C-alpha cells in the first residue's frame, strides 16, 4: 500500500539541491530531495544486511513518569546505527566503483561500518588511521575485513594521505556526509519505530554535529504522523546544532576536546541538508551536561543491561536531567544509537557516575589508635549496610592529638537516602567526620 505524503511541500522546502564542498565528500553528485519513498526504498534494500533492532518498553518508565521505549540500535553488528546509512550508500555505488574499492580515514563508528559492510559486499576497503588510534579500534576494523594502515600523528594527516591514495588508485574516498542516500538509510530507524510502537507522542534522538540520524528519521516520522514530537539532544559543552540553527548555516568553529568520550556527537556540523531538514522538521533541541550523560549510562547499564557510549546515552540524559517535563505521562521512544565505548573509559565512566549519583562517598575521621576502635567503626558501617571499597590509615602526618589515627574511607551505598542515613550515624558517633564533596 502506498502512503501519500502529507508533507511533500515541507520536504521540498527543507531540502534543495545543494552542492557539497569538495573537502567534505568525494561523491560528485548533487544532493536531491529526500522523499519518504527514498526512505522506504532504503528500508527494502538494506533489510537483509542490518538488524531490525527491538524497540522495547523500559523499566525506567516508572522512575521518570512516562512510557519509555528504547530503540536499541547498539545491537547492530558494529554497535552503531551508522550501519544503515553506510550499507545503503555502498549498495548504491556504481559497479565499477565497487570493483575499485573505497577508502576512509578515521576510527569512528562510520568507518567501522564501512569496513564491515564493504567487506560483506566484497568491495575492497581501506581504513587509514593515525598512530594515536586505540589498538582495539584497529584490531576491530581488521577483523571486519578492512586493510588498515597507520599514517601520521593526527587525524588530518591520515585524511590527507587517504585522499592521496584515493586519487592515485581510483578508490572512492568516503567521509560521513549528508547526501540523500545516506540520510535515507539512517531514516529507516524512524520507519521501524513507527511500526513497533503505536501511538507515539515523541521520539528523542542524539543530535550534535552529526545530526543525519535526527534529520533522516524526522523526515520519515513527520511524513507518517506530523503530530509526533521530534526532539534532538546535544551536549552543553558544544551545542553545535543549536548554534548552527541560530546562525542558519553549519558551524565549523565549535570543537570538542573530550572527543574520546563523546565520539561522533562531538564533530562539527557536516552538512546543509541535515541542518535544513532539522530546522524544518525537528520540534525541539535541548542540551545536557556531561554529568547527566554519565548518569544516563549508569541507568542503562543497571536497568537494561546495556553498555553504551555517550552518543548512545545522550538521548535518555534529557529525561534524566528533567529537560523535557512536557513528556510526563506520554509515550516516548528514545534511540540508543551506539555502544562502542572503550574499556578503560567504561571503568572511569561508571565509577564517576556512581559518585555523581551519591552512591559512592568518601569521608575521613580521627579515632584513637587503640585496639578495638577500628573494629567499632567497621561495626557501624556493617550495621548501616555500607560496603567498604577502600580504607586507609594515616598516623605520621596527623595534626590532632598524639596516639590518634586518621581514617580515610570510601564506601558504596544504595542511594541518596542510604548515604544520608550513614552520614547521620557516623556524625552521631564521630562529630568531626569530614565528607569529601564531589
Automatic annotation (TrEMBL):
Keyword Cell division in record: no
GO BP, sorted A to Z: isoleucine biosynthetic process; L-serine catabolic process; L-threonine catabolic process
Signal peptide: none
Keywords in alphabetical order: Lyase, Pyridoxal phosphate
Gene3D superfamilies linked to this entry: 3.40.50.1100
Domain ACT positions: 362-438
KW Lyase (keyword) present: yes
Cofactors (names): pyridoxal 5'-phosphate
Lineage top rank: taxon: Eukaryota
GO molecular-function term, one example from the UniProt record: L-serine ammonia-lyase activity
PANTHER family from the UniProt entry: ACT DOMAIN-CONTAINING PROTEIN, THREONINE DEHYDRATASE, MITOCHONDRIAL-RELATED
Listed name of the protein: L-serine deaminase
Organism of derivation: Oreocharis arfaki (tit berrypecker)
Amino acid at each position: 500500500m502506498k502512503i501519500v505524503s502529507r508533507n511533500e511541500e515541507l520536504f521540498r522546502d527543507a531540502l534543495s539541491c545543494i552542492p557539497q564542498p569538495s573537502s567534505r565528500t568525494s561523491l560528485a553528485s548533487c544532493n536531491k530531495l529526500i522523499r519518504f519513498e527514498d526512505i522506504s526504498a532504503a528500508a527494502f534494500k538494506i533489510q537483509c544486511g542490518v538488524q531490525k533492532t527491538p524497540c522495547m518498553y523500559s523499566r525506567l518508565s516508572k522512575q521518570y513518569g512516562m512510557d519509555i521505549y528504547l530503540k536499541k540500535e547498539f545491537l547492530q553488528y558494529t554497535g552503531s546505527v551508522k550501519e544503515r546509512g553506510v550499507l545503503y550508500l555502498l549498495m548504491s555505488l556504481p559497479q565499477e566503483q565497487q570493483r575499485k574499492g573505497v577508502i576512509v580515514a578515521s576510527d569512528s563508528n562510520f568507518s567501522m561500518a564501512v569496513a564491515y559492510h564493504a567487506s560483506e559486499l566484497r568491495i575492497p576497503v581501506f581504513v587509514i588511521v593515525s598512530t594515536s588510534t586505540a589498538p582495539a579500534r584497529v584490531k576491530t576494523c581488521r577483523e571486519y575485513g578492512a586493510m588498515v594502515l597507520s599514517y601520521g600523528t593526527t587525524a588530518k594527516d591520515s585524511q590527507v594521505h587517504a585522499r592521496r591514495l584515493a586519487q592515485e588508485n581510483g578508490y572512492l574516498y568516503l567521509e560521513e556526509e549528508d547526501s540523500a542516500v545516506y540520510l535515507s538509510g539512517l531514516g529507516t530507524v524512524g520507519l521501524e519505530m513507527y511500526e513497533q510502537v503505536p501511538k507515539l507522542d515523541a521520539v528523542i534522538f542524539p543530535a550534535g554535529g552529526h545530526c543525519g540520524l535526527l534529520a533522516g528519521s524526522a523526515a520519515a516520522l513527520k511524513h507518517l504522523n506530523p503530530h509526533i514530537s521530534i526532539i534532538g539532544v546535544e551536549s552543553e559543552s558544544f551545542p553545535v546544532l543549536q548554534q548552527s540553527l541560530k546562525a542558519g548555516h553549519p558551524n565549523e568553529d565549535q570543537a570538542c576536546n573530550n572527543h574520546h568520550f563523546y565520539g561522533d556527537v562531538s564533530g562539527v556540523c557536516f552538512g546543509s541538508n541535515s541542518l535544513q531538514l532539522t530546522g524544518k522538521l525537528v520540534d525541539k533541541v535541548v542540551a545536557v551536561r556531561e554529568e547527566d550523560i554519565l548518569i544516563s549510562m549508569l541507568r542503562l547499564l543497571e536497568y537494561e543491561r546495556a553498555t553504551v557510549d555517550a552518543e548512545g546515552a545522550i538521548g535518555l540524559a534529557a529525561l534524566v536531567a528533567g529537560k523535557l517535563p512536557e513528556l510526563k505521562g506520554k509515550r516516548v521512544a528514545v534511540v540508543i544509537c551506539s555502544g562502542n565505548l572503550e574499556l578503560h573509559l567504561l571503568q572511569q565512566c561508571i565509577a564517576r557516575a556512581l559518585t555523581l549519583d551519591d552512591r559512592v562517598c568518601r569521608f575521613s575521621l580521627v579515632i584513637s589508635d587503640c585496639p578495638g576502635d577500628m573494629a567499632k567503626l567497621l561495626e557501624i558501617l556493617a550495621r548501616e549496610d555500607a560496603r567498604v571499597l577502600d580504607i586507609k590509615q594515616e598516623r605520621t602526618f596527623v595534626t590532632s592529638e598524639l596516639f590518634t589515627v586518621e581514617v580515610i574511607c570510601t564506601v558504596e551505598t544504595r542511594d541518596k537516602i542510604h548515604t544520608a542515613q550513614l552520614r547521620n550515624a557516623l556524625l552521631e558517633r564521630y562529630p568531626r567526620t569530614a565528607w569529601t564533596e564531589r
